[in-house]
Amino acid sequence: MEKIVALCKRRGFIFQSSEIYGGLASTYDYGHYGVLLKSNVKGEWWRAVVQERDDMVALDAAILMHPRTWEASGHVQSFTDPLVQCMGECKKRWRADHISTEGGYARCPECGGGLSEAREFNLMFETFMGPVREDAARIFLRPETAQGIFVNFKNVLQFARRKPPFGIAQVGKAFRNEITPGNFIFRTREFEQMEIEFFVPPAEAPEWHRRWMDDRMRWYTDLGIRPDHLQLRAHGEDELSHYSAGTSDIEYLFPMGWSELEGIANRTDYDLRRHAEFSGEDLSYFDTATGERYVPYVIEPSAGADRGTLAFMVDAFDEEEVAGRKRTVLRLHPRLAPVKVAVLPLVSRDGMPEKARAIYEELRRVIPAEFDEGGSIGKRYRRQDEIGTPWGVTIDGQTMEDDTVTLRDRDSLEQVRVAAGALAEELLRRLNSEWRSPKLAG
Length: 442
Ligand code: GAP
Hints:
Blueprint: H1 2-10, E1 14-16, E2 28-30, H2 32-51, E3 56-58, H3 68-72, H4 75-78, E4 80-85, E5 93-95, E6 119-122, E7 126-128, E8 138-140, H5 146-150, H6 153-159, E9 166-175, E10 190-200, H7 205-222, E11 230-234, E12 247-254, E13 257-268, H8 270-279, E14 285-287, E15 292-294, E16 297-304, H9 305-316, E17 317-322, E18 325-330, E19 341-345, H10 352-363, E20 369-371, H11 377-387, E21 391-395, H12 397-402, E22 404-409, E23 415-419, H13 423-432
Parallel strand pairs: 3-9, 19-20, 19-21
Antiparallel strand pairs: 1-2, 4-5, 4-6, 7-8, 9-10, 10-16, 11-12, 12-13, 13-16, 14-15, 17-18, 21-22, 22-23
Bound molecules: glycyl-adenosine-5'-phosphate (GAP).
């Protein structure tokens, strides 16, 4: 993980937030390449769950919601973690369920001191709406994007003219006052979720749950995650959220061990029933074909955009020796790579920079490209390898004679000559063709 954090800082993917003030704990800012990478992760998610399906629609609900939402959803009462405090030297606070009780009883993981009794700590961030700080004005930053979907169920039913089975997809920020954030962007207090609420006739819920688990596992492997670094794990009874009749987590083998990447829950009709009860609105569905009225069950694949971005980086990270030199390379799926092609003049003379710039201007209209003329060619390639750029184009002496360029592949290091006029087409062909992680070979 230290290597990933260092690479993120060195290449401007992700920085500590408010760094000039000493930083704000477990809060991060995304720089240029980080923004592009996370945006590609979200883009691929939208493509898979909305564009390539005809049973899904998109939504972007507000972060601030009516406070009754969180009473109905159960978050005011149940969205808690058990908090213990060290009674010894360090006085640190911990999540009781994250502390090992090996050897009989729990001790502070930092200083070994005794621990207080556990008390339930609500993870929602509170704030006040309007100028008066009174109870009536108290609202919450949403701890999940899901509730914005449930309260819009009726709108979508009417205006998107949908009938179950259908789903609503949303990407957005969520906030949790986590007791122990950590592991870089794995667990933070502000993060982005990519959530689907898929509404189905109750009898079909188990089948849709299974289908979504398969679909979501495939999404990660299609984007290059090694299958043996992914697993599905069903929650035990004691782990289930207050709304869930069954949840399976997609776990990834992060550097700190197997950890949740995405949860896929059968939320039953819990949320729609509760919102119907608290709002007085009828949130049932009348099926004109069968004459049956029912409250749909919900299958919820809920992923983290930051956690996903971290997993894609961890899985792509590689170090190898090439011609006696160490090379660090992010073997990202080309569709996730922040920059798809780097255009590099071999040297800064003989008309090569001008020719390279002209090629770059052409390419960037059709594919994310970067122009780089500073430093030795080897250094520039190392920089592009580290940010995961899958292809490099070198403009050299031969280009000036026959208008061909060298096209270099990040993973195989194979170099071929391509006519400058055919570059865009060749790059788009490569981008849209099947890609397999080179880590899977052998
Ligand atoms: N609506 C259901 C829900 O929110 P969750 O398992 O609590 O379920 C879903 O969260 C996903 O959101 C997680 O699998 C993870 O990827 C991401 N996530 C949750 N808490 C997070 C945090 N503190 N920091 C980063 N990502 C988080």
